[in-house]
Amino acid sequence: MISTVPGNYPKIANRPGGQALRRAISSFDRGRIAAEELAAVADSVTVEVIGEQERAGIDVITDGQVRWQDPITYVAGNLQGYEIGGLIRYFDTNTFYRQPEATSTIAWQGPFLVRDYEFARDHAAKPLKPVVTGPYSVAKLSLLGIYADLETLVMDTAKALNQEMKALAATNPVLIQVDEPAIVWHRYKDDWDIFREAMDVLMDGVDAKTVLRTDFGDATGLPDFFALPFQGFGLDMVHGKQNQTLISDFPDDRDLILGIIDARNVRMETEEAVVDSVTLVTQHVAAGRLAVSPNTGLEFLPRETAYDKLQNMVHAVKKAQEAVA
Predict the structure, then answer these.
(1) Residues 65-83: what's their mean pLDDT?
(2) Residue 193 contacts by C-beta under 8 Å, 6 or more apart in sequence?
(3) How many domains does the chain have?
(4) How confident is the model at residue 12 (pLDDT cuts 50, 70, 90)?
(5) Residue 183: is it exposed, middle or buried by C-beta count within 10 angstroms (0-12/13-18/19+)?
(6) Segments in 57-183 forming alpha helices (H)
(7) Residue 210's beta-bridge partner residues?
(8) 1 or 186, which is more confident?
(9) DSSP letters along 254-309, please?
(10) How confident is the model at residue 29 (pLDDT cuts 50, 70, 90)?
């Protein structure tokens, strides 16, 4: 049993120097600093958030996605064919993303996550996983533009991101996490057949351990969800409470990332509640295949609160390990 994090981590902190990235972005937007200077600040903040995750005791960390504007824009903006537009609400949150539009055929232009991953890995003492927003969520949350239908846009995006997955796999990561929140959003489940085909395209020839993580909903009603071509699955147990009904049938040969820490609420979970939840799950999932995690990205929280939640989660995981030993 281990602890992990979903992906993003708050970039801004309420302490001296904690506004460095925000100020650098503002200066860059006004033409006061060059792109290289902005990148250097992003590197510095990346090292900071890696250190915070490690000090909190997290077993498998991320780079905090410090360079990502949001879960959609960074990926779409690095693919040929997507043009980034105006702000639109991200699911039912109080955050926004810049909605891409497909203005030409979607294609891969070369690696864009590999450098981020290798930089972060070189500055980490703990295992670090790269995260990729999946093709369905990127396409579904974009405007079709020149495309006549969603399916074609999703498949072209999947083909492009398949190349990125292969480039990441070549760096020999501990695992690659694919984030697909849109497919469990209740309004979009009718796209299941498109999604299933897209996952086959995305994973074709990818030689690495992979995990499919979902949030903002539950996977109930999606036939053979655990038969998708991944070695593990991440489930949101906070905003997808019905996922609890899937645990009893979780496959023995897959890993589970259990998203039980509410990353959209500053209220701190009690260690007892976390231990109880994890212990119940271990009745169906072997402890050695279980990772405990916040249910979604941590950028919805103040940075100090995010750290406290992670530290509290790590303490609870250690107690759960003792309880099930």
Answers:
(1) 96
(2) none
(3) 1
(4) confident
(5) buried
(6) 73-76, 114-122, 135-140, 150-169
(7) 176
(8) 1
(9) SEEEEEEE-TT--SPPPHHHHHHHHHHHTTTS-GGGEEEEESS-GGGS-HHHHHHH
(10) confident
Q: Which residues of 239-256 are buried (b: 16+ CB within 10 A; e: fewer)?
A: bbeebeebbeebeeebbb
How far is C-alpha 252 from the geometric centre of its chain's CA atoms?
A: 24
Alpha-carbon distances of 61 from 1, 47, 51, 238, rounded to whole Å? 15, 12, 10, 21
Answer for the pair 22, 11: CB distance below 8 angstroms, yes or no.
yes
Whole-angstrom distance, CA of residue 189 vs CA of residue 178: 18
Domain limits for position 133: 2-324
Q: What is the DSSP string of 152-198?
A: HHHHHHHHHHHHHHHHHHTT--S-EEEE--GGGSGGGGGGHHHHHHH
Question: CA nearest 168: which of 121, 99, 235, 136?
Answer: 121
Q: Kind and range of the H or E element at 245?
A: none
Residue 25 pLDDT: 82
Could you tell me the CA-to-CA distances from 115 to 112, 164, 264 in Å, in that order? 7, 12, 30
Provide the CATH number for the domain around residue 197.
3.20.20.210
Strand, helix or coil for residue 8: strand
What count of residues does the chain have? 325
Taking the C-alpha atoms of residue 121 and residue 142, their distance in angstroms, rounded to an integer, is: 31
Whether residue 173 contacts residue 117, with contact meaning beta carbons closer than 8 Å, is answered with: yes
User: 157 is written with which tokens?
Assistant: 């995006």
Among 256, 263, 218, CA closest to 236 = 218
The whole-angstrom separation of Cα 101 and Cα 86 is 10
Which H/E stretch holds residue 213?
Answer: strand 210-213
Beta strand 255-261 with 290-294 is parallel
- Per the CB < 8 A criterion, the answer to whether 40 and 28 are in contact is no
Among candidates 226, 234, 221, which has minimal Cα distance to 263?
234
